[in-house]
Structure prediction request, 612 residues.
Amino acid sequence: MNIDALIEGIRAKQNPTVAGLDPRPEHLPAFLLDDAIREHGETLAALAAATMRFNTAILDALHDIVPAVKLQSACYEMLGPEGMAAMRDSIAYAKGLGLYVIVDAKRGDIGSTAECYSAAFLGRVKVGGAEIAPFDADALTVNPYLGSDCVLPFLDDVGANARAIFILGRTSNRSSSELQLLPAPDRPLYRVVGELTERWGAAYIGAHGYSSVGLVVGATQPAEIVELRRHLRRTFFLIPGYGAQGGAAWDIARAFDNLGRGALVNSSRAILCAWQKKGTPEAYADCARAEALRMKEELGRYVTFN
Amino acid sequence: MNIDALIEGIRAKQNPTVAGLDPRPEHLPAFLLDDAIREHGETLAALAAATMRFNTAILDALHDIVPAVKLQSACYEMLGPEGMAAMRDSIAYAKGLGLYVIVDAKRGDIGSTAECYSAAFLGRVKVGGAEIAPFDADALTVNPYLGSDCVLPFLDDVGANARAIFILGRTSNRSSSELQLLPAPDRPLYRVVGELTERWGAAYIGAHGYSSVGLVVGATQPAEIVELRRHLRRTFFLIPGYGAQGGAAWDIARAFDNLGRGALVNSSRAILCAWQKKGTPEAYADCARAEALRMKEELGRYVTFN
Prediction:
């Protein structure tokens, strides 16, 4: 699904939140782990099974509130091939519930390798007469360090399969300034990446005026969000760093246009681990739902969706 | 294994080649695919099985010639969870043959996520009382775009588990210049990354004077190899782009010090696809061996290993 489907989901649910499905083993209630270890022994398969059970309940609890989920690939890779199967199955389950699915894998490599990554997450692989979508996500995050070569192969799937990608622009972590703020001619490096992103997206602009080549812009740099929004009129922003990392709803609101379009705000731990702060292990899904509703209400104070 | 193990392998085999184990479906002899489809049907499991059979024969044919192999993660991810199992099993098989194993995954993310990537490829994951190494590689390539945050978690495994990482500095693809050559204060961006790499590696310098935090430097920019070697005395280089991408042995020789240390040269397609140029499908392993010997001989004309 391209960026239009995401924008329409945000509008339908009046909520620009993407819930991060990034469960690390320590985020899982102990009873889920215990059950899985009883069945699978002390194996990665047990962690993958507990993760899948957790994700299923979280998705059931959130699917009528949030329009999108974002899976952090690292959390699944650390569980080995069984974890990758849990990622694939979580993507399928989320799509079955009508959710827009972003895989946050931050891939980036030379052209021939980028083709493989695109096939893995956004495309199809031929086997004899069959064509199989290995992970079948709607969108993928992409690291721009290798330049256009590492982006162009993904655009083929953006076009042919109506997918989207999000380029890392200004990330929300503290040390992001070491490279991203370096002064390129007339502007910092992340602005160069922003302008490349606008250019890469020019051929993929949808019905709502935004392209299917988006940009990751951390919530922790509000002035930069404003500046990027002013310069990049066609670029949709994926905004991590809300809540736990310190970004405030008031600041984030400036990433949106007057119709409440143009951005998607991620929350991972605040939703997934809400049970650790305000509930019981058994109530993890209800706690996630309550936090997602709270976040929706908070963002809704500053952004309206027409 | 840290960088010393790699350096000693290069010396023992008198060969600074790392063979890229990057088989895409079109690189596999048709009879391997046909056999696998007969057994597994037209599934990703069939592609993964054919890949594993190919890798096993290639590793058997190369293990006494080359000191190291590099697996391109994208080639396995595009085969889904079954492909990731083939990657895990290929790593284990290669290590069983005494080879040094680099996973070329170019990962890079914020600190808590980088911890997960490090656990996946270089570390261990706890399940109850067990500790399991999901992919168990010796080294991993890392993308620096997010700054120190995305590197420091890997250093814990470099130290505790004697692993190594290679930071992307100057890549071999054409569009790498779009960002990597941007002028930072007094020097281009890739030089900033090189200096950060030397700093990250300062605490991990081995018996041969090189740190276990290496740098990827494309063979297609010989003048830059020379310049980086002059500035970065403690940093070991991983050099892609030899052969197919145009880098010549004569140029690459300048990455090495007088003892023939300091660099590892990758060749992927030239070795894996040698059968397509100079042989028959059945002879793919012998053709790979012949090309690896040719490359060893060619590099040996310009570099001696004491």
Chain A touches chain B through 73 residues (CB under 8 Å). Chain A has a mean pLDDT of 95. The longest strand of chain A covers residues 100-107.
